[in-house]
Design a protein that fits this description.
The complex is a heterodimer of chains A (474) and B (83). Chain A is α+β, with helices and mostly antiparallel strands and 474 residues long. Chain A is built from 16 helices and 16 strands. The longest helix of chain A has 27 residues. Chain B is built from three helices and no strands. Chain B is elongated, with a radius of gyration of 18 Å.
Amino acid sequence: MNKPESTAPRPTNQGAGADQGMYAKHQKVYPREVHGVFAFWRSTGVFVLLGLYYGLPWLRWDGRQAVLLDLPERKFHIFALTFWPQDFFYLALILIVAALTLFFFTALAGRLWCGYACPQTVWTEVFLRIERLVEGDRARQMTLADAPWGARKVLIKAAKQTLWLVFAAYTGLTFVGYFTPILEVARGLLDFSLGPWETFWIAFYSLATYGNAGFLREQVCIYMCPYARFQSAMFDKNTLIISYDRARGEPRGSRRRGDDYRAKGLGHCIDCTLCVQVCPTGIDIRHGLQYQCIGCAACVDVCDQVMEKMQYPKGLIRYTTENALLGKAVRILRPRVLFYGALLLAMVAGLGYALATRLPLELDVIRDRNALFRETDGGLIENVYTLKILNMDDVPHSYRLTVQGIANLQLHMHRDRIDVPAGEVMELPVRLQVDPGDLSARSSKIAFTLRDRDDPALTVTEDARFLGPAPGTR
Amino acid sequence: MRIPVIQKIIAILWPSFLMAGVATALFFTAFDPALILAHTAFADIPRLGAYTVGFFLFWLLTASTCLLTCYFQRPCDRAPDAS
Protein backbone atom coordinates (compact mmCIF):
# COMPACT_ATOMS: atom_id res chain seq x y z
CA MET A 1 0.00 0.00 0.00
CA ASN A 2 1.23 3.44 -0.80
CA LYS A 3 2.18 5.36 2.28
CA PRO A 4 0.43 8.69 2.39
CA GLU A 5 2.83 11.14 0.83
CA SER A 6 3.28 13.91 3.28
CA THR A 7 5.79 15.51 0.97
CA ALA A 8 3.43 15.56 -1.97
CA PRO A 9 3.56 18.84 -3.83
CA ARG A 10 0.94 21.25 -2.59
CA PRO A 11 -1.85 22.47 -4.82
CA THR A 12 -1.06 23.22 -8.39
CA ASN A 13 -4.42 24.90 -8.80
CA GLN A 14 -3.77 27.87 -6.60
CA GLY A 15 -5.15 31.19 -7.60
CA ALA A 16 -2.39 33.68 -8.23
CA GLY A 17 -3.78 36.19 -5.77
CA ALA A 18 -4.42 33.62 -3.12
CA ASP A 19 -5.70 34.62 0.29
CA GLN A 20 -3.04 35.84 2.63
CA GLY A 21 -4.60 35.29 6.01
CA MET A 22 -3.17 34.70 9.42
CA TYR A 23 -1.74 31.48 8.03
CA ALA A 24 0.59 33.17 5.58
CA LYS A 25 1.79 30.16 3.58
CA HIS A 26 -1.62 28.79 2.78
CA GLN A 27 -3.01 29.44 -0.65
CA LYS A 28 -6.68 29.22 -1.36
CA VAL A 29 -7.97 26.22 -3.25
CA TYR A 30 -10.60 26.98 -5.88
CA PRO A 31 -12.29 23.66 -6.60
CA ARG A 32 -13.85 23.46 -10.05
CA GLU A 33 -17.51 22.44 -10.18
CA VAL A 34 -18.05 18.82 -11.15
CA HIS A 35 -20.97 16.70 -12.32
CA GLY A 36 -21.30 12.95 -12.38
CA VAL A 37 -22.37 9.89 -10.47
CA PHE A 38 -20.41 10.61 -7.31
CA ALA A 39 -21.20 14.33 -7.38
CA PHE A 40 -24.86 13.26 -7.43
CA TRP A 41 -24.38 11.11 -4.34
CA ARG A 42 -22.51 13.87 -2.58
CA SER A 43 -25.34 16.31 -3.33
CA THR A 44 -27.83 13.75 -2.08
CA GLY A 45 -25.78 13.43 1.09
CA VAL A 46 -25.80 17.20 1.53
CA PHE A 47 -29.57 17.46 1.08
CA VAL A 48 -30.47 14.51 3.29
CA LEU A 49 -28.06 15.33 6.12
CA LEU A 50 -28.66 19.06 6.17
CA GLY A 51 -32.40 18.40 5.77
CA LEU A 52 -32.21 16.26 8.90
CA TYR A 53 -30.09 18.81 10.76
CA TYR A 54 -32.31 21.80 9.98
CA GLY A 55 -35.61 19.89 10.08
CA LEU A 56 -35.36 17.69 13.18
CA PRO A 57 -35.69 20.44 15.82
CA TRP A 58 -39.03 21.48 14.30
CA LEU A 59 -40.50 18.00 14.55
CA ARG A 60 -43.06 17.56 17.33
CA TRP A 61 -43.76 14.44 19.39
CA ASP A 62 -46.48 14.11 21.96
CA GLY A 63 -46.81 17.86 22.47
CA ARG A 64 -43.08 18.52 22.81
CA GLN A 65 -40.05 18.85 20.55
CA ALA A 66 -39.25 15.36 19.22
CA VAL A 67 -35.48 15.67 19.60
CA LEU A 68 -34.52 17.96 22.43
CA LEU A 69 -31.33 17.57 24.44
CA ASP A 70 -32.74 19.76 27.16
CA LEU A 71 -29.62 20.89 28.98
CA PRO A 72 -31.38 23.42 31.25
CA GLU A 73 -33.77 20.70 32.47
CA ARG A 74 -31.11 17.96 32.39
CA LYS A 75 -33.27 15.63 30.29
CA PHE A 76 -32.66 14.33 26.77
CA HIS A 77 -35.84 13.72 24.79
CA ILE A 78 -35.40 11.55 21.70
CA PHE A 79 -38.81 10.74 20.26
CA ALA A 80 -40.54 8.39 22.74
CA LEU A 81 -37.49 8.07 24.99
CA THR A 82 -36.39 10.40 27.76
CA PHE A 83 -32.88 10.10 29.12
CA TRP A 84 -31.67 11.40 32.48
CA PRO A 85 -28.11 12.06 33.61
CA GLN A 86 -28.35 8.62 35.27
CA ASP A 87 -28.60 7.13 31.77
CA PHE A 88 -25.10 8.23 30.78
CA PHE A 89 -24.31 4.57 30.14
CA TYR A 90 -26.52 4.59 27.02
CA LEU A 91 -24.75 7.64 25.64
CA ALA A 92 -21.42 5.87 26.09
CA LEU A 93 -22.81 2.82 24.27
CA ILE A 94 -24.12 4.97 21.43
CA LEU A 95 -20.71 6.62 21.03
CA ILE A 96 -18.99 3.21 20.91
CA VAL A 97 -21.47 2.03 18.27
CA ALA A 98 -20.81 5.20 16.24
CA ALA A 99 -17.04 4.71 16.41
CA LEU A 100 -17.31 1.04 15.41
CA THR A 101 -19.59 1.95 12.50
CA LEU A 102 -16.93 4.38 11.29
CA PHE A 103 -14.21 1.71 11.60
CA PHE A 104 -16.34 -0.87 9.80
CA PHE A 105 -17.12 1.34 6.83
CA THR A 106 -13.55 2.63 6.66
CA ALA A 107 -12.15 -0.89 6.48
CA LEU A 108 -14.71 -1.76 3.82
CA ALA A 109 -14.77 1.33 1.63
CA GLY A 110 -12.18 3.85 2.78
CA ARG A 111 -13.12 7.41 3.56
CA LEU A 112 -16.82 7.21 2.76
CA TRP A 113 -17.47 9.32 5.83
CA CYS A 114 -15.13 12.12 4.77
CA GLY A 115 -16.34 12.35 1.20
CA TYR A 116 -20.08 12.20 1.76
CA ALA A 117 -21.18 12.57 5.36
CA CYS A 118 -18.71 14.60 7.44
CA PRO A 119 -20.25 17.90 8.59
CA GLN A 120 -17.09 19.64 7.41
CA THR A 121 -17.58 18.31 3.87
CA VAL A 122 -21.31 18.94 3.89
CA TRP A 123 -21.17 22.53 5.12
CA THR A 124 -18.15 23.36 2.95
CA GLU A 125 -20.16 22.11 -0.04
CA VAL A 126 -22.95 24.57 0.79
CA PHE A 127 -20.49 27.44 1.25
CA LEU A 128 -18.83 26.55 -2.07
CA ARG A 129 -22.22 26.64 -3.77
CA ILE A 130 -22.97 30.05 -2.33
CA GLU A 131 -19.56 31.22 -3.49
CA ARG A 132 -20.25 29.89 -6.99
CA LEU A 133 -23.68 31.48 -7.01
CA VAL A 134 -22.28 34.92 -6.23
CA GLU A 135 -18.81 34.92 -7.78
CA GLY A 136 -19.30 32.55 -10.70
CA ASP A 137 -17.26 29.51 -11.67
CA ARG A 138 -13.65 28.76 -10.80
CA ALA A 139 -12.12 30.92 -13.52
CA ARG A 140 -14.28 33.91 -12.54
CA GLN A 141 -13.43 33.44 -8.87
CA MET A 142 -9.73 33.46 -9.62
CA THR A 143 -10.04 36.50 -11.90
CA LEU A 144 -11.98 38.31 -9.21
CA ALA A 145 -9.34 37.47 -6.62
CA ASP A 146 -6.68 38.96 -8.90
CA ALA A 147 -8.72 42.05 -9.77
CA PRO A 148 -7.93 45.31 -7.97
CA TRP A 149 -10.40 46.34 -5.28
CA GLY A 150 -13.18 48.39 -6.83
CA ALA A 151 -16.88 48.94 -6.34
CA ARG A 152 -17.79 45.77 -8.23
CA LYS A 153 -15.40 43.55 -6.29
CA VAL A 154 -16.50 45.01 -2.96
CA LEU A 155 -20.14 44.48 -3.88
CA ILE A 156 -19.63 40.86 -4.93
CA LYS A 157 -17.49 40.01 -1.91
CA ALA A 158 -19.92 41.72 0.45
CA ALA A 159 -22.84 39.82 -1.07
CA LYS A 160 -21.02 36.51 -0.61
CA GLN A 161 -20.03 37.27 2.99
CA THR A 162 -23.58 38.36 3.82
CA LEU A 163 -25.07 35.16 2.43
CA TRP A 164 -22.46 33.11 4.28
CA LEU A 165 -23.17 34.91 7.53
CA VAL A 166 -26.94 34.55 7.22
CA PHE A 167 -26.59 30.85 6.49
CA ALA A 168 -24.14 30.43 9.37
CA ALA A 169 -26.43 32.30 11.73
CA TYR A 170 -29.35 30.05 10.85
CA THR A 171 -27.07 27.07 11.41
CA GLY A 172 -26.19 28.44 14.86
CA LEU A 173 -29.85 29.01 15.69
CA THR A 174 -30.66 25.44 14.72
CA PHE A 175 -27.77 24.15 16.84
CA VAL A 176 -29.03 25.92 19.95
CA GLY A 177 -32.52 24.67 19.01
CA TYR A 178 -31.36 21.16 19.89
CA PHE A 179 -30.63 22.23 23.47
CA THR A 180 -33.31 24.83 24.18
CA PRO A 181 -36.78 24.46 22.60
CA ILE A 182 -36.33 25.92 19.12
CA LEU A 183 -39.69 27.71 19.20
CA GLU A 184 -38.52 29.65 22.26
CA VAL A 185 -35.20 30.43 20.58
CA ALA A 186 -36.85 31.67 17.39
CA ARG A 187 -39.44 33.70 19.32
CA GLY A 188 -36.72 35.09 21.60
CA LEU A 189 -34.67 36.19 18.60
CA LEU A 190 -37.64 37.90 16.99
CA ASP A 191 -38.59 39.97 20.02
CA PHE A 192 -35.01 40.36 21.35
CA SER A 193 -35.80 38.51 24.57
CA LEU A 194 -33.38 35.62 24.06
CA GLY A 195 -31.22 34.82 27.08
CA PRO A 196 -27.55 35.85 27.01
CA TRP A 197 -26.24 32.26 27.08
CA GLU A 198 -28.39 31.12 24.17
CA THR A 199 -27.34 34.22 22.23
CA PHE A 200 -23.70 33.48 22.97
CA TRP A 201 -23.93 29.89 21.71
CA ILE A 202 -25.76 30.92 18.54
CA ALA A 203 -22.93 33.38 17.85
CA PHE A 204 -20.25 30.82 18.76
CA TYR A 205 -21.63 28.07 16.54
CA SER A 206 -22.33 30.51 13.69
CA LEU A 207 -18.76 31.76 13.75
CA ALA A 208 -17.41 28.22 13.93
CA THR A 209 -19.47 27.25 10.85
CA TYR A 210 -18.47 30.43 9.03
CA GLY A 211 -14.78 29.97 9.83
CA ASN A 212 -14.62 26.23 9.16
CA ALA A 213 -16.72 26.08 5.99
CA GLY A 214 -15.86 29.52 4.62
CA PHE A 215 -12.17 29.83 5.33
CA LEU A 216 -10.42 26.85 6.89
CA ARG A 217 -12.10 24.25 4.64
CA GLU A 218 -9.60 21.54 3.68
CA GLN A 219 -7.22 22.70 6.42
CA VAL A 220 -9.70 21.29 8.95
CA CYS A 221 -9.25 17.88 7.32
CA ILE A 222 -5.48 18.24 7.12
CA TYR A 223 -4.64 19.77 10.50
CA MET A 224 -7.63 19.23 12.77
CA CYS A 225 -9.11 15.88 11.91
CA PRO A 226 -7.76 13.03 14.04
CA TYR A 227 -9.50 10.49 11.81
CA ALA A 228 -7.43 11.58 8.80
CA ARG A 229 -4.29 10.73 10.73
CA PHE A 230 -5.20 7.29 12.03
CA GLN A 231 -7.35 6.02 9.18
CA SER A 232 -4.38 4.30 7.55
CA ALA A 233 -4.44 1.89 10.50
CA MET A 234 -7.83 0.68 9.29
CA PHE A 235 -6.80 0.42 5.64
CA ASP A 236 -5.42 -2.69 4.00
CA LYS A 237 -4.79 -3.82 0.44
CA ASN A 238 -8.47 -4.68 -0.03
CA THR A 239 -9.87 -1.36 1.14
CA LEU A 240 -11.72 0.66 -1.47
CA ILE A 241 -9.69 3.76 -2.28
CA ILE A 242 -9.67 6.32 -5.04
CA SER A 243 -6.71 5.61 -7.20
CA TYR A 244 -5.14 6.62 -10.48
CA ASP A 245 -4.31 3.68 -12.70
CA ARG A 246 -0.67 4.47 -13.27
CA ALA A 247 -0.08 1.47 -15.50
CA ARG A 248 -2.80 2.68 -17.87
CA GLY A 249 -2.22 6.40 -17.65
CA GLU A 250 1.54 6.77 -17.92
CA PRO A 251 3.38 8.22 -19.63
CA ARG A 252 0.96 11.10 -19.55
CA GLY A 253 0.94 13.82 -22.15
CA SER A 254 -1.28 16.06 -24.22
CA ARG A 255 -2.53 14.98 -27.62
CA ARG A 256 -5.24 15.82 -30.10
CA ARG A 257 -8.38 13.76 -30.13
CA GLY A 258 -8.00 10.86 -32.51
CA ASP A 259 -4.18 10.93 -32.33
CA ASP A 260 -2.59 7.53 -32.13
CA TYR A 261 -1.25 7.94 -28.62
CA ARG A 262 0.47 4.57 -28.77
CA ALA A 263 2.58 5.77 -31.67
CA LYS A 264 3.55 8.79 -29.54
CA GLY A 265 4.42 6.44 -26.68
CA LEU A 266 1.74 7.86 -24.38
CA GLY A 267 -0.70 6.34 -21.91
CA HIS A 268 -4.33 7.29 -21.38
CA CYS A 269 -3.71 10.35 -19.18
CA ILE A 270 -3.90 13.46 -21.33
CA ASP A 271 -2.50 15.58 -18.49
CA CYS A 272 -5.45 18.01 -18.61
CA THR A 273 -5.05 18.54 -14.80
CA LEU A 274 -8.84 18.61 -14.38
CA CYS A 275 -8.50 16.04 -11.60
CA VAL A 276 -6.36 18.55 -9.73
CA GLN A 277 -8.69 21.47 -10.46
CA VAL A 278 -11.76 19.75 -9.01
CA CYS A 279 -9.99 18.53 -5.86
CA PRO A 280 -11.34 20.29 -2.76
CA THR A 281 -8.07 19.67 -0.92
CA GLY A 282 -5.94 20.67 -3.89
CA ILE A 283 -3.93 17.47 -4.30
CA ASP A 284 -2.89 15.56 -7.40
CA ILE A 285 -4.35 12.06 -7.09
CA ARG A 286 -1.81 10.86 -9.65
CA HIS A 287 0.83 11.00 -6.93
CA GLY A 288 -0.86 8.09 -5.17
CA LEU A 289 -2.85 7.82 -1.97
CA GLN A 290 -2.35 10.89 0.20
CA TYR A 291 -3.69 11.63 3.64
CA GLN A 292 -5.25 14.85 2.33
CA CYS A 293 -7.55 12.85 0.04
CA ILE A 294 -11.01 12.89 1.56
CA GLY A 295 -12.36 10.36 -0.91
CA CYS A 296 -14.96 12.65 -2.46
CA ALA A 297 -14.47 11.13 -5.94
CA ALA A 298 -14.70 14.50 -7.72
CA CYS A 299 -11.60 13.51 -9.70
CA VAL A 300 -13.27 10.22 -10.67
CA ASP A 301 -16.27 12.05 -12.09
CA VAL A 302 -14.27 14.61 -14.04
CA CYS A 303 -11.74 12.11 -15.41
CA ASP A 304 -14.54 9.83 -16.61
CA GLN A 305 -15.95 12.74 -18.61
CA VAL A 306 -12.56 13.33 -20.20
CA MET A 307 -12.11 9.65 -20.98
CA GLU A 308 -15.55 9.64 -22.59
CA LYS A 309 -14.63 12.62 -24.77
CA MET A 310 -11.35 10.98 -25.76
CA GLN A 311 -13.22 7.71 -26.41
CA TYR A 312 -10.97 5.86 -23.97
CA PRO A 313 -12.41 3.44 -21.43
CA LYS A 314 -13.60 5.10 -18.23
CA GLY A 315 -12.00 4.51 -14.88
CA LEU A 316 -8.48 5.87 -15.32
CA ILE A 317 -9.15 7.28 -11.85
CA ARG A 318 -11.60 5.05 -10.00
CA TYR A 319 -12.69 3.48 -6.79
CA THR A 320 -10.53 0.41 -6.56
CA THR A 321 -8.29 -1.49 -4.18
CA GLU A 322 -4.56 -1.85 -4.14
CA ASN A 323 -4.90 -5.56 -4.82
CA ALA A 324 -7.11 -4.88 -7.84
CA LEU A 325 -4.55 -2.44 -9.23
CA LEU A 326 -1.86 -5.08 -8.82
CA GLY A 327 -4.07 -7.61 -10.59
CA LYS A 328 -4.58 -9.73 -7.48
CA ALA A 329 -7.85 -11.13 -6.20
CA VAL A 330 -9.94 -8.74 -4.10
CA ARG A 331 -11.43 -10.10 -0.90
CA ILE A 332 -14.27 -8.16 0.63
CA LEU A 333 -14.98 -10.49 3.53
CA ARG A 334 -11.68 -10.60 5.34
CA PRO A 335 -10.86 -10.99 9.05
CA ARG A 336 -10.68 -7.24 9.68
CA VAL A 337 -14.10 -6.55 8.17
CA LEU A 338 -15.64 -9.60 9.86
CA PHE A 339 -14.15 -8.57 13.21
CA TYR A 340 -15.43 -5.00 13.04
CA GLY A 341 -18.77 -6.26 11.73
CA ALA A 342 -19.19 -8.82 14.51
CA LEU A 343 -18.18 -6.33 17.18
CA LEU A 344 -20.59 -3.77 15.75
CA LEU A 345 -23.46 -6.27 15.67
CA ALA A 346 -22.75 -7.29 19.26
CA MET A 347 -22.71 -3.68 20.45
CA VAL A 348 -25.91 -2.80 18.57
CA ALA A 349 -27.61 -5.88 20.02
CA GLY A 350 -26.36 -4.92 23.48
CA LEU A 351 -27.61 -1.37 23.08
CA GLY A 352 -30.98 -2.61 21.81
CA TYR A 353 -31.30 -5.03 24.73
CA ALA A 354 -30.28 -2.38 27.27
CA LEU A 355 -32.80 0.09 25.84
CA ALA A 356 -35.59 -2.50 25.67
CA THR A 357 -35.09 -3.59 29.27
CA ARG A 358 -34.43 -0.09 30.60
CA LEU A 359 -36.58 0.72 33.63
CA PRO A 360 -37.85 4.29 33.80
CA LEU A 361 -37.48 4.23 37.57
CA GLU A 362 -34.58 4.82 39.89
CA LEU A 363 -34.24 4.66 43.63
CA ASP A 364 -31.45 6.25 45.67
CA VAL A 365 -31.18 5.65 49.42
CA ILE A 366 -29.40 8.25 51.54
CA ARG A 367 -28.85 7.52 55.24
CA ASP A 368 -29.49 10.27 57.73
CA ARG A 369 -26.02 11.60 58.47
CA ASN A 370 -26.80 13.19 61.83
CA ALA A 371 -27.32 10.07 63.87
CA LEU A 372 -26.17 6.51 63.40
CA PHE A 373 -29.26 5.18 65.15
CA ARG A 374 -31.74 6.20 67.82
CA GLU A 375 -33.53 4.28 70.51
CA THR A 376 -37.25 4.97 70.64
CA ASP A 377 -39.32 5.30 73.81
CA GLY A 378 -40.62 1.80 73.15
CA GLY A 379 -37.08 0.37 73.21
CA LEU A 380 -36.84 -0.12 69.43
CA ILE A 381 -33.78 0.82 67.34
CA GLU A 382 -34.56 3.38 64.68
CA ASN A 383 -32.64 4.41 61.51
CA VAL A 384 -33.72 7.30 59.29
CA TYR A 385 -33.28 7.45 55.53
CA THR A 386 -34.20 9.76 52.70
CA LEU A 387 -35.29 7.96 49.55
CA LYS A 388 -34.97 9.71 46.22
CA ILE A 389 -37.47 8.28 43.76
CA LEU A 390 -36.98 9.24 40.10
CA ASN A 391 -39.92 8.59 37.82
CA MET A 392 -38.15 8.81 34.48
CA ASP A 393 -41.30 7.84 32.57
CA ASP A 394 -43.56 10.19 30.60
CA VAL A 395 -46.61 9.16 32.67
CA PRO A 396 -47.25 9.38 36.43
CA HIS A 397 -46.73 6.25 38.51
CA SER A 398 -47.85 5.01 41.88
CA TYR A 399 -45.42 2.78 43.76
CA ARG A 400 -45.40 0.47 46.76
CA LEU A 401 -42.34 0.44 49.02
CA THR A 402 -41.17 -2.59 50.98
CA VAL A 403 -38.00 -3.40 52.90
CA GLN A 404 -36.33 -6.72 53.69
CA GLY A 405 -33.17 -7.95 55.40
CA ILE A 406 -34.02 -8.08 59.12
CA ALA A 407 -36.84 -10.00 60.75
CA ASN A 408 -39.80 -7.87 61.90
CA LEU A 409 -38.49 -4.71 60.33
CA GLN A 410 -41.09 -1.94 60.55
CA LEU A 411 -41.34 0.73 57.89
CA HIS A 412 -42.82 4.12 58.77
CA MET A 413 -43.43 7.02 56.44
CA HIS A 414 -45.66 10.07 56.40
CA ARG A 415 -47.79 9.03 53.49
CA ASP A 416 -49.81 6.04 52.40
CA ARG A 417 -49.29 6.30 48.68
CA ILE A 418 -46.16 7.11 46.74
CA ASP A 419 -47.43 8.95 43.67
CA VAL A 420 -44.72 10.50 41.51
CA PRO A 421 -45.74 12.69 38.54
CA ALA A 422 -44.18 12.11 35.11
CA GLY A 423 -40.52 13.06 34.96
CA GLU A 424 -40.33 14.14 38.60
CA VAL A 425 -38.13 13.31 41.56
CA MET A 426 -39.70 12.65 44.97
CA GLU A 427 -37.74 12.88 48.21
CA LEU A 428 -39.30 10.56 50.75
CA PRO A 429 -38.10 10.42 54.38
CA VAL A 430 -38.66 7.02 55.95
CA ARG A 431 -37.98 5.55 59.38
CA LEU A 432 -37.13 1.91 60.01
CA GLN A 433 -37.61 0.40 63.45
CA VAL A 434 -36.62 -3.00 64.74
CA ASP A 435 -36.40 -4.77 68.07
CA PRO A 436 -32.74 -4.97 69.16
CA GLY A 437 -33.20 -8.68 69.76
CA ASP A 438 -33.63 -9.17 66.02
CA LEU A 439 -30.30 -7.53 65.23
CA SER A 440 -27.39 -9.92 64.79
CA ALA A 441 -24.67 -7.37 64.01
CA ARG A 442 -23.82 -3.67 64.41
CA SER A 443 -24.47 -3.21 60.74
CA SER A 444 -27.03 -5.25 58.83
CA LYS A 445 -27.64 -5.30 55.13
CA ILE A 446 -31.17 -4.36 54.15
CA ALA A 447 -32.84 -3.79 50.79
CA PHE A 448 -35.56 -1.34 49.80
CA THR A 449 -37.84 -2.50 47.00
CA LEU A 450 -40.00 -0.11 45.05
CA ARG A 451 -42.67 -1.66 42.84
CA ASP A 452 -45.23 -0.10 40.58
CA ARG A 453 -48.76 -0.80 41.82
CA ASP A 454 -50.03 -1.75 38.36
CA ASP A 455 -46.94 -3.14 36.66
CA PRO A 456 -44.94 -5.58 38.82
CA ALA A 457 -42.20 -5.68 36.16
CA LEU A 458 -41.39 -2.09 37.07
CA THR A 459 -39.42 -2.91 40.21
CA VAL A 460 -36.14 -1.60 41.54
CA THR A 461 -34.20 -2.74 44.59
CA GLU A 462 -31.58 -0.69 46.37
CA ASP A 463 -29.30 -1.95 49.15
CA ALA A 464 -28.63 -0.01 52.35
CA ARG A 465 -27.21 -0.58 55.85
CA PHE A 466 -29.12 -0.64 59.12
CA LEU A 467 -26.98 0.32 62.13
CA GLY A 468 -27.56 -0.61 65.73
CA PRO A 469 -25.77 -1.36 68.98
CA ALA A 470 -23.46 -4.35 69.13
CA PRO A 471 -25.52 -7.49 69.85
CA GLY A 472 -25.41 -8.57 73.47
CA THR A 473 -24.48 -5.15 74.86
CA ARG A 474 -27.97 -4.75 76.22
CA MET B 1 10.79 20.71 8.84
CA ARG B 2 8.75 23.84 9.36
CA ILE B 3 5.33 23.56 10.96
CA PRO B 4 2.79 26.06 9.59
CA VAL B 5 1.56 28.67 12.07
CA ILE B 6 -2.03 27.52 11.63
CA GLN B 7 -1.00 24.01 12.66
CA LYS B 8 0.66 25.36 15.81
CA ILE B 9 -2.45 27.32 16.77
CA ILE B 10 -4.69 24.34 16.05
CA ALA B 11 -2.42 22.02 18.03
CA ILE B 12 -3.11 24.14 21.12
CA LEU B 13 -6.72 25.19 20.69
CA TRP B 14 -8.27 22.18 19.01
CA PRO B 15 -7.33 19.11 21.12
CA SER B 16 -8.02 21.20 24.21
CA PHE B 17 -11.43 22.16 22.81
CA LEU B 18 -12.34 18.51 22.25
CA MET B 19 -11.18 17.43 25.70
CA ALA B 20 -12.88 20.39 27.35
CA GLY B 21 -16.09 19.23 25.69
CA VAL B 22 -15.65 15.70 27.03
CA ALA B 23 -14.73 16.98 30.50
CA THR B 24 -17.74 19.32 30.55
CA ALA B 25 -20.10 16.51 29.56
CA LEU B 26 -18.69 14.12 32.17
CA PHE B 27 -18.52 16.71 34.94
CA PHE B 28 -22.02 18.06 34.50
CA THR B 29 -23.49 14.60 34.05
CA ALA B 30 -22.19 13.72 37.47
CA PHE B 31 -22.82 17.09 39.16
CA ASP B 32 -25.83 19.32 38.75
CA PRO B 33 -24.58 22.93 38.66
CA ALA B 34 -27.85 24.11 40.23
CA LEU B 35 -27.01 22.06 43.34
CA ILE B 36 -23.33 23.06 43.40
CA LEU B 37 -24.10 26.77 43.13
CA ALA B 38 -27.23 26.73 45.31
CA HIS B 39 -25.64 28.23 48.43
CA THR B 40 -23.01 30.42 46.77
CA ALA B 41 -22.98 33.94 45.40
CA PHE B 42 -23.61 32.50 41.91
CA ALA B 43 -26.98 31.00 42.78
CA ASP B 44 -28.86 32.94 40.09
CA ILE B 45 -26.74 31.70 37.20
CA PRO B 46 -28.98 29.42 35.11
CA ARG B 47 -27.76 25.93 34.27
CA LEU B 48 -26.95 26.88 30.68
CA GLY B 49 -24.75 29.69 32.01
CA ALA B 50 -23.00 27.35 34.42
CA TYR B 51 -22.35 24.85 31.61
CA THR B 52 -20.94 27.64 29.46
CA VAL B 53 -18.64 29.03 32.14
CA GLY B 54 -17.64 25.47 33.09
CA PHE B 55 -16.81 24.66 29.50
CA PHE B 56 -14.58 27.70 29.08
CA LEU B 57 -12.83 27.06 32.38
CA PHE B 58 -12.13 23.50 31.26
CA TRP B 59 -10.94 24.84 27.92
CA LEU B 60 -8.61 27.28 29.65
CA LEU B 61 -7.18 24.42 31.68
CA THR B 62 -6.74 22.01 28.77
CA ALA B 63 -5.40 24.74 26.47
CA SER B 64 -2.80 25.65 29.10
CA THR B 65 -1.74 22.01 29.18
CA CYS B 66 -1.45 21.91 25.39
CA LEU B 67 0.52 25.14 25.44
CA LEU B 68 2.96 23.76 27.99
CA THR B 69 3.32 20.53 26.00
CA CYS B 70 4.11 22.51 22.87
CA TYR B 71 6.54 24.66 24.82
CA PHE B 72 8.39 21.72 26.36
CA GLN B 73 8.63 19.71 23.18
CA ARG B 74 10.96 22.26 21.65
CA PRO B 75 14.50 20.89 21.44
CA CYS B 76 16.63 21.86 24.45
CA ASP B 77 19.93 22.04 22.63
CA ARG B 78 19.75 24.60 19.94
CA ALA B 79 22.10 23.61 17.17
CA PRO B 80 24.59 26.42 16.42
CA ASP B 81 23.39 26.73 12.85
CA ALA B 82 19.68 26.70 13.70
CA SER B 83 17.90 29.72 12.42
